[in-house]
Amino acid sequence: MVYSVLGDGRSVTHSDKEKLGFTEAIILEVLRVKPVAPFGLPHGVDKAFELQGYTIPKDAIVFANILAIHKDPNYFAEPEKFDPSRWLDQKGHITGRDRLLTFSVGPRSCLGEILAKMELFLFFTSILQFYTVQLEDESKPLDMTPVIGLVSKAKDQNIVIMKR
């Protein structure tokens, strides 16, 4: 799809985003399934409160479990399934961006979210425009098991990247 829209002669631009909805949907799904910071940033509690029978004391440090929210079937049908189409409406336009919490939400959300999403789009689209990417051994499935820490990363995979 990327190659059919852009060919091999020009760089991707922000204005191409609308024509490449499925490409953006793939990026949103990757951010849902593999958030860079699965537990977000720490937040301080300024006054004690009750949450589902637990007392959260003043000055406690809390984290939002973004990964758990993104895997919750109340918010995402078949959450364990990698499905970029969950971000597309019937016409192929992006929908439901507000369900993605990778960059947090509210006044403490990541200031770089817009820039990060645009850079991801430009980078990912450029790779798909000029290269084919595949597993070195396609008979082995991609191992999507995360290596979780403060920042998550993928397991090492053997891939082949070939110039178009």
UniProtKB/TrEMBL annotation:
Domain of life per record: Eukaryota
Binding site for heme: 110
Cofactor(s) required for function per UniProt: heme
Gene Ontology CC entries for this record: cytoplasm
Any single GO BP term: xenobiotic metabolic process
UniProtKB keywords: Heme, Iron, Metal-binding, Monooxygenase, Oxidoreductase
Pfam families linked: p450
GO molecular function: heme binding; iron ion binding; oxidoreductase activity, acting on paired donors, with incorporation or reduction of molecular oxygen, reduced flavin or flavoprotein as one donor, and incorporation of one atom of oxygen; steroid hydroxylase activity
PROSITE patterns tied to this protein: CYTOCHROME_P450
Annotated Gene3D superfamilies: Cytochrome P450
Classification via SUPFAM superfamilies: Cytochrome P450 (SSF48264)
InterPro entries hit by this protein: Cyt_P450, Cyt_P450_CS, Cyt_P450_E_grp-I, Cyt_P450_sf, Cytochrome_P450_fam2
Family: Belongs to the cytochrome P450 family.
Protein name: Cytochrome p450 2c15-like
